[in-house]
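Bug #77: duplicate submission created two jobs. Keeping one. Sequence:
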Amino acid sequence: MKFVDEAVIDVAAGNGGAGCVSFRREKYIPFGGPDGGDGGRGGSAVAVADPSLNTLVDYRYARRHEAANGEPGRGSDQFGAAGRDVELRMPIGTIVRDLGTGQVLAELMQAGERVVLAKGGDGGFGNLHYKSSTNRSPRQKTPGWPGEQRKLQLELRLLADVGLLGMPNAGKSTLISVISNARPKIADYPFTTLHPNLGVVRAGPSRSFVVADIPGLIEGAAEGAGLGHHFLRHLRRTRLLWHVIDVAPLDAAVDPVRQAKAVLAELRKYDEELYRKPRWLVLNKIDMIKPVRRDGLAREIARRLRWKGPVFQVSALAREGLKPLVESTWQHLDAARTERAAAPGVRFAQN
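Kept job's structure:
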């Protein structure tokens, strides 16, 4: 299935049905009085969070979504039926904005969550509505109210605990395929990953977290080089970033530290808040470095980056050093979860 994380759609709620002017006419009842019913309300456009979806591809081609109009009122005290709502099923993590005002109308974060995007118009009043002791035979009625119409921008941001950051061919896809159930495309050329991948990592019984792998960043991404900054939005909801660095590039002239600095510079250009998220260094492909040189190389990379945070030496291909990385990540996320749960006024959903 094609991965689509942006779409623009038009939604139109249904119009309310018109009220009815009618009088009861039956044999032996010469003055039956008014019996015109009200019109039914129009249907609404409703967004529904569906956990079975992971892309907005359905809205790339179906741009117009309309709810049904309400039925008009009829005689014999019959009110019009309400129009059927139109349900727009969207992946969890979708943000819905009004394209005209820029206002965020919905942010779907829980399965089954429902948000009205465009409200249907109310039905008009029939003459039965105007009956009173002084107005015995009213002939007033009102038309139905129009439903709301909006042009909406849909933006999908994946829900993940950990995000993978790094240059193309740093080994991010191999890493997520080894530690999780994700099966991304892996090949020996740059930009193998063309869209984000999610994987669930099992750290133990009832202990798991979600990792997101996005296409690699290169220098000049802010100007559109490579795949640009397009997929960085999927890291905004993460609580921890793994900065994956290839310590054994095939080209000896390539400097891993310079590449790491370029990635951080592009991250900062995109979003200062994302740049300041907790971030760990994950030095990948250590199986290609002699054991006696590994610790010294790790210290040198940390020194040149002026890095004070955690550093992990792993080999995704040889499956070395992965257990400490996964276990430390779980402990970090669990501590953050406990801290947020203890904060007053904050409700934190358990995994």
